[in-house]
UniProtKB/TrEMBL annotation:
This is Aminotransferase class I/II-fold pyridoxal phosphate-dependent enzyme. NCBIfam families: GntG_guanitoxin (NF041359). Belongs to the threonine aldolase family. Its cofactor is pyridoxal 5'-phosphate. The lineage of its organism: Bacteria, Pseudomonadati, Bacteroidota, Cytophagia, Cytophagales. Residues 5-288 form the Aromatic amino acid beta-eliminating lyase/threonine aldolase domain. The keyword Transferase applies.
């Protein structure tokens, strides 16, 4: 049986249409800024978010880390939620790459309020690292795919502007937020000083992220990318996959959200689930009661050709994506039902 891989939306493979676009790409040397396809992708993504310029990078970790380095100096501080990818899942990169410290906010499902952000900004006092950057994540991975609305972003942006602090977005799954909210990305450019977007999550490209911002910021970021060894010479083959993804794979994220909702409905009824974080996009995080240990539950799924991530004590994560077909969804629902202590065939 085919494996249904719900560990992450990073596992997708290029579709035939995407591969065709990649084969047909015009390329050049991007370190000389001469790759027409990378240049086109950078301009296209920047325009979508109301930004002046963009920078193509191999990963979202790199775009985030470049942004943090560009906005800070050693001995300054970044504010983010305690669950943030930049803090939890980038290998200590803030400290290593930027020599900056981090002020952690205990938000709600990965989301900080303007008051929480403001309360963590340091006063001008020799004892404290000066606050230089606030970083939001949209959608919030560890928050189970919860998202900020434009109104919430605007309120945090207002605090940052008033205090003279830069605002960065880790938008690895920002398209999921935009599709779910129905909002237009172009307004983001008014609120953020930099935006990182991933092409290799729900959008289905094999590789690639973009860092978006003002021209001067992107120029500085290009230098940092060079230092990190992130310039890809004839990377246009990869950028072509990114352009294809932006043109074909955004609206369909609603499909992934629908599938995540169906999984949520099944889990809410299951006798082995304590709670499910209410599903808003393509991530389903739930807590098991004592009927299963998380590793045993994940193993039981594996025996039924389903892969999932163990996500902390008794926590499990499913992520839906474009390689999860309707048939696979039906199979997942049946297995989740079967794992109940008492079940009737559906
Ligand atoms: C996946 C992800 C990233 C970047 O990951 P890469 O694997 O380095 O591309 C950044 N932020 C969040 C929230 C993510 O989920």
């Amino acid at each position: 049986m085919n494996i249904t891989d719900l560990r992450s939306d990073t596992v997708t493979k290029p579709t035939p249409g995407m591969l065709q676009a990649m084969f047909a790409a015009q390329v050049g040397d991007d370190v000389y800024e001469e790759d027409p396809t990378i240049n086109a992708l950078e301009q296209k993504a920047a325009a979508m978010f109301g930004m002046e310029a963009g920078l193509f990078c191999p990963s979202g970790t790199m775009t985030n880390q470049i942004a943090i380095k560009a906005h800070t100096e050693p001995m300054t501080e970044v504010i983010c939620d305690v669950t943030a990818h930049i803090y939890q899942y980038e290998g200590g990169g803030i400290m290593f790459n930027s020599g900056a410290s981090v002020a952690l906010v205990h938000g709600e499902r990965g989301k900080m309020t303007p008051a929480q952000v403001e309360a963590h900004i340091r006063p001008d006092n020799i004892h404290y690292p000066p606050t230089r950057l606030v970083a939001l994540e949209n959608t919030c991975n560890k928050g189970g795919g919860a998202f900020y609305t434009l109104e919430e972003i605007a309120a945090i942006s207002e605090v940052c502007k008033r205090q003279g602090i830069a605002l960065h977005l880790d938008g690895a799954r920002v398209f999921n937020a935009l599709v779910a909210s129905g909002e237009d990305a172009v307004a983001y450019g008014n609120y953020f000083d930099s935006i990182s977007i991933c092409l290799s999550k729900g959008l289905g490209a094999p590789v690639g992220s973009l860092l978006l911002g003002k021209k001067e910021f992107v120029k500085k970021s290009r230098r940092i990318r060079k230092v990190l060894g992130g310039g890809i010479r004839q990377g246009g083959y990869l950028a072509a996959a990114g352009i294809y993804a932006l043109e074909n794979n955004i609206e369909r994220l609603a499909e992934d959200h629908r599938k995540a909702k169906e999984i949520e409905s099944m889990l809410i009824q299951a006798d082995y689930v304590e709670y499910v974080l209410p599903v808003q996009t393509n991530i389903v995080i739930f807590k098991l009661n004592d009927r299963y240990k998380d590793v045993d539950f994940v193993a039981a799924l594996a025996e039924n050709s389903i892969r999932a991530s163990s996500f902390g004590p008794q926590m499990v994560r499913f992520v839906t994506h474009l390689d999860v077909s309707d048939d696979m969804l039906q199979h997942v629902l049946q297995v989740l039902h079967k794992l109940n202590k008492t079940h009737v065939a559906i």
